[in-house]
Amino acid sequence: MPGIDKLPIEETLEDSPQTRSLLGVFEEDTAAISSYCQQLFQAMQRIYHAQNELSTATHLTSKLLKEYEIQHFPLRGDDEVMSSTLQHFAKVIDELSSCHAVLSTQLADAMVFPITQFKERDLKEILTLKEVFQISSNDHDVAINRYSRLSKRRDNEKVKSEVMEDVYTSRKKQHQTMMHYFTALNTLQYKKKIALLEPLLGYMQAQINFFKLGSENLTQQWEDFLTNIGTSVQKCIKHYNMHIVYNDTCY
Amino acid sequence: MPGIDKLPIEETLEDSPQTRSLLGVFEEDTAAISSYCQQLFQAMQRIYHAQNELSTATHLTSKLLKEYEIQHFPLRGDDEVMSSTLQHFAKVIDELSSCHAVLSTQLADAMVFPITQFKERDLKEILTLKEVFQISSNDHDVAINRYSRLSKRRDNEKVKSEVMEDVYTSRKKQHQTMMHYFTALNTLQYKKKIALLEPLLGYMQAQINFFKLGSENLTQQWEDFLTNIGTSVQKCIKHYNMHIVYNDTCY
């Protein structure tokens, strides 16, 4: 139904079938938004939890490498090179886990928080207002019903005036809750765009920061380290191969 | 015990208490390496699984954004801008999920695979050889025992010769299995360095590739997109605020 961008608040007093039918369209649209946002919320939660777990696991690995020094290896021998290499790995991996932790925090603040707010505050508010509106509509229907039966019998003036008072207050209540409900549904049509775009912008900005942090501060440093380590590992492998050749000649 | 870097294979025939004591030290060291590698293996598995989950969750988010177009929203209205913006987000996030998937694969090949091989092949081989060596040692002890009882009694020549044959073959077997076991324990002292360094190098290289891929191909492209999107979101927020002001004046 293109072109309709809001529910007419001025029609709430008349409350015609046309207005009710239009309300149905807005309610259907809101249900579709809720369902879509719920799915997006779950996917974003999954990203956040995975990022958190990655940060924790990376930190744990760095911690384990740091602890190599204090392990009880009875044959430690010429282990200083190995120890210092693992300490260096531990340091670099710890720096990476810090970048991951920063990314996690930014995702929590700029992605998970706004979509959670939209879901828990805005979408829940609509549900509450819908319920309140339905209750006041029912109350109004009951009052109208009492009034219509009243006119057939010949009740006393006191009862008549009570019933009419009831119709008046319940219609006023229904009108008020309907205006509130319409306003919230109209507002949601604007909010939904921000609700979808804001967490995505937060996600992208956090990723850009992460790549900047990683590539500017770490990559060059890492590559120098890996070049150095390469030599050391080559030595290890050479040593190992010599050992294999020695053992083969022994047999 | 620094300075000792291998078990003397040439001492396996004599099998003196000194050799056995040295074997004990190597066995203790091997147990410490196994335990340390098991911990590192678990931490690396955690990293790999988290990275995999991150890759999947990112892909799912991109897929959801792509599906915005085919959602049934009864009030679609002027939704083309929103649709094309979400399609753009979907594309960029999908590119990011591809980078994550490449990182996952590289971690599987260059980190998880070598440490799993070391654990499942090299460390298990040591355990098997230890068992085989213990069985042949026991067999030898039984043969020696029979032989020592034999010399006290006066058995016939056939039994004597059988028992001596048994001592000979079981000692030969024990000698062979001990040589194998010693060789494997010595080899492990060289392998352990490679076993620790290889998955770490694989991990670092995969991370460097990931940052390069991310920062070279994506970041500039993303920033241009975010600048464009910024304007669009500003428009949304302005529109939304106007709506709020309008509603406030309506009440």
Automatic annotation (TrEMBL), chains A, B:
<dbReference type="GO" id="GO:0023052">
    <property type="term" value="P:signaling"/>
</dbReference>
<protein>
    <recommendedName>
        <fullName>BAR domain-containing protein</fullName>
    </recommendedName>
</protein>
<dbReference type="InterPro" id="IPR027267">
    <property type="entry name" value="AH/BAR_dom_sf"/>
</dbReference>
<dbReference type="GO" id="GO:0010008">
    <property type="term" value="C:endosome membrane"/>
</dbReference>
<dbReference type="InterPro" id="IPR047181">
    <property type="entry name" value="DP13A/B"/>
</dbReference>
<dbReference type="Pfam" id="PF16746">
    <property type="entry name" value="BAR_3"/>
</dbReference>
<dbReference type="InterPro" id="IPR004148">
    <property type="entry name" value="BAR_dom"/>
</dbReference>
<feature type="domain" description="BAR">
    <location>
        <begin position="7"/>
        <end position="238"/>
    </location>
</feature>
